[in-house]
């Protein structure tokens, strides 16, 4: 049994690989809550590839006196 999580960038001459690569689904979710108990716990945004989180970001703003320690 094989489980493909994503399809790699194809070569120009490989039409079958191009078709598979085009099936990849990229999506972005803003304010992703990750706690049912504390609704203030959320990631600012998450980038997904085929439903799997590949990048998470916690953004901070100097105008509201936030810094890297707040992100941690």
Question: In terms of topology, how is this protein built?
Answer:
Elements lengths: L14 H7 L4 E8 L8 E8 L2 E6 L10 H4 L1
Antiparallel strand pairs: 1-2, 2-3
What does it look like?
Helices cover 15% and strands 31% of the residues. With 72 residues, it is an alpha+beta fold. It has a 3-stranded antiparallel β-sheet, with no helix packed on it.
Features of the shown structure:
single chain, 72 residues, alpha+beta, three-stranded antiparallel β-sheet
Oligomeric form: single chain
Major sheet: size, sense and barrel closure?
A: 3 strands, antiparallel
- Please state roughly what percent of the residues sit in beta strands, choosing from under 5%, 5-15%, 15-25%, 25-35%, 35-45% or over 45%: 25-35%
Distance between the termini: 39 Å
pLDDT average, as an integer?
A: 89
Unreliable spans are none
What's the SSE pattern? HEEEH
CA radius of gyration is 18 Å
Approximate shape = elongated
Strand order, sheet with most strands: 1-2-3
The beta-strand count equals 3
**Helix fraction?**
10-25%
Structural class: alpha+beta
Number of helices: 2
